[in-house]
Amino acid sequence: MNDEEFDKYLEDACDELDQKYQVLVDEFGFGGHDNFVIEYENQSLMFFDKEKPVVAATILPVASHIPEKESLVWFWSNRNLPDAVRDHSSAVKKLYDVTGYEVFNNPSVECDESMAWEIAAMACKCLEAKGVYRISQGNMHSYVLITEVRHYG
Fold first, then answer.
1. Which residues are within 8 A (CB) of 23 and not within 5 positions of it... i.e. 6 or more apart?
2. CA distance 47 to 115
3. CA–CA distance, 61 with 152 (Å, rounded to integer)
4. Which of 145, 149, 139 lies closest to 65, judged by CA?
5. Strand 131-137 relative to strand 108-110: parallel, antiparallel, unpaired?
6. What is the C-alpha to C-alpha distance for residues 116 and 21, in angstroms, rounded to an integer?
7. Rounded Cα–Cα distance for residues 111 and 152 (Å)
8. For the whole prediction, is pTM greater than 0.85?
9. What is the pLDDT of residues 5-42, one digit of tens each?
10. C-alpha distances in angstroms, 26 versus 42, 75, 131?
11. pLDDT for 51-91, tens place per residue?
């Protein structure tokens, strides 16, 4: 993929992510629930209203980003995570196969928050996910793909 093709892929991925996220908001209330529980090992993201589960999603972890350090670490390269999580998240390596860009093959990437979203958008497009969810954990953000989503119950 040359630079022009990459720019087009990135633009398409960001446009698609905007549309996909709007569906998640409209149909499943993403961004409006009281609480959520994420279980990386079970590939699960559950949303609650008060204490009632209302939406269940299957996830594929992409990367964690620390804005102050402008550092993104792929879940597949994070040795602090269980092997099952790392193995599952290695699906995002397909971005390297599609683009040929080394940034998708390196264990970490220097990037700002905007670029972290762009990387998540490209992973979403590449793996045909239903959207991306960003989880804030202190000074870190984790990006996960939503691969399946349904109303609970």
1. 130, 131
2. 27
3. 21
4. 139
5. unpaired
6. 16
7. 36
8. yes
9. 999 999 999 999 999 999 999 999 998 999 999 999 99
10. 26, 29, 13
11. 999 999 999 999 999 999 999 999 999 998 899 999 999 99
